[in-house]
Request: fold
Amino acid sequence: MAFLFGCENVHLEYPTKVIFESLSLGVDDGDCVGVVGRNGDGKSSLLGLFDGTVEPDDGRVLRTGGVRFASLRQADELDDAKSIGWNVVGDTPEYEWASDARIRDIIDGMIGDLDWNAEVGTLSGGQRRRGLHQNDHPRGGRPDGDHQSADRLQGLCPHAPGAEAAAAGA
Reply:
C-alpha cells in the first residue's frame, strides 16, 4: 500500500495544554481511520495538521502529492440557502466526485436518507449534525449515545480493526 500522509515527531502545544508530544503516525492507501476522543483532546488539531490549517511547533507533517483533504469543522459554516449537495461537494463537478465509488459510498452512508437537493436550512438540528458536521464529537463517539453514525461508519469501513467495537459503542 502507498503512503498518503502522516507526521514525524510532531509537537503541538497551546498556552494551557500540550496537545501532541513526539507524535508519529502514517496513513496508507486503503486505511480506514476514525478519530475519537474527549473535547479538547486534539481531534480537530490533528485533522488540521493534515489539512494544513494547523502548523506544528516542532516535527514535520508529510503529505503525498495529489492527496486532497476535506474536513468538516466544529463550527457550522453551512449555507442554509444552498442544497445539501452543494454544501457537501461545493462547486466540484459531479463527474469528479461521482466517478469515485468510495466517495459515493461515503455520501450514501452518511446522508443517503436526506434529499440531496433540499436546502440545508430545512434540516433538523440532528440531521444537520449527523450528516453535515461533527459538532464537537466525532461521528460514532458522541456521549449522547448516537451510535447510528458509528453503525454507518462501520458499514463503510467493515475491514478496519476495531470497527465492530466502535459500532457497539465500546
Remarks:
- Residues 93 and 147 are 32 Å apart (CA to CA).
